[in-house]
Amino acid sequence: MTTPHISAEPGQIAPLVLMPGDPKRAARIAEQHLDGAELVSDVRGIGCWTGTYRGTPMSVMASGMGIPSISIYATELFRFYDVRRIVRVGTCGGMADAVAVGDTIVATAAHTNASLSTLLVPGVSLSWAASYPLLRGAMDAAAARGTGGVHAGPVYCSDHFYLARPDLTQGLVKLGTLGVEMESAGLYACAAAEGGEALTVLTVSDHLFDASRDMSAAERETLFATSVEIAAAALLA
């Protein structure tokens, strides 16, 4: 069956999925990292390609921006297409002093100000955690690269891109939060609800406390090779 948001037929999407937010980035990942990639869905311009990575079937599908968007695609992939593992490969703003633009963050957990913090379990404010097998696979892959610039720790998943809250940011940094983005909590929550596995691997594209180091829009689309390789290795672990 197809879904309202995915037109692929059963079996056309692999159990292992790389998920960037940007459709253009998804197309580039499929072209550069998958062998024999074929477009299997393109509803609303959200492409999904399936090919192989080191001989293993793997798909790449965009998620769009924000928790609501990624929650739709992740839920449909887990529930209707027998996807087992999704690794988000995206960009984020650095928050910690130790994190530099161009570094990679492996998100062990996702704090959020979104309603899903209390929606699924009323009265409990949840932080959402990555799946350990994927996390272990990512960190093993990072260690094998031996190039440095890879950080593991929590990120903050904001529901408001332009929310100016210095007090909130400083509090999160003091508690070890490495970066800020908009999708990981939704992905981790969907994986928990649907019995799947999820992880986020992020390229730091800008820094909240040093705008002079920010990447350009073109760099955001192209400078993600390290994150993709670590994410793909995690899917295979």
Question: Any key phrases for this structure?
Answer:
Rossmann fold, 5-stranded mixed beta barrel, alpha/beta, 34% helix, 237 residues
List the helices and strands and how they pair.
Elements: E1 16-19, H1 23-33, E2 35-41, E3 48-53, E4 56-61, H2 67-80, E5 85-94, E6 104-112, H3 116-119, E7 128-129, H4 132-145, E8 150-157, H5 166-174, E9 179-181, H6 184-194, E10 197-207, H7 217-222, H8 225-236
Parallel strand pairs: 1-4, 1-5, 5-10, 6-8, 8-9
Antiparallel strand pairs: 2-3, 3-4, 5-9, 6-7, 6-10
Helix pairs in contact: 2-6, 4-8
Strand order of the largest sheet: 5-9-8-6-10
CATH topology: Rossmann fold
CATH H-tier superfamily: Nucleoside phosphorylase domain
CATH architectural category: 3-Layer(aba) Sandwich
Q: Could you say how many structural domains there are in total?
A: 1
Strand content: 25-35%
Shape: globular
Low-pLDDT runs of 5+ residues are none
Provide the succession of SSEs. Answer: EHEEEHEEHEHEHEHEHH
Termini separation: 29 Å
Helical amount: 25-40%
Radius of gyration: 17 Å
Number of DSSP helical runs: 8
Residue-averaged pLDDT, rounded? 91
Classification by helices and strands:
alpha/beta
Which class in CATH terms? Alpha Beta
Strand elements, count: 10
Please describe what this structure looks like.
This protein is an alpha/beta fold and 237 residues long. It has one domain (16-236): Nucleoside phosphorylase domain (Rossmann fold). The chain contains eight helices and ten strands. The chain has helices at 23-33, 67-80, 116-119, 132-145, 166-174, 184-194, 217-222, 225-236, and strands at 16-19, 35-41, 48-53, 56-61, 85-94, 104-112, 128-129, 150-157, 179-181, 197-207. It has a five-stranded mixed barrel with strand order 5-9-8-6-10, surrounded by four helices. Helix 2 (67-80) runs parallel beside helix 6 (184-194). It is globular, with a radius of gyration of 17 Å. The two termini are 29 Å apart. The model has no long low-confidence stretch (mean pLDDT 91).
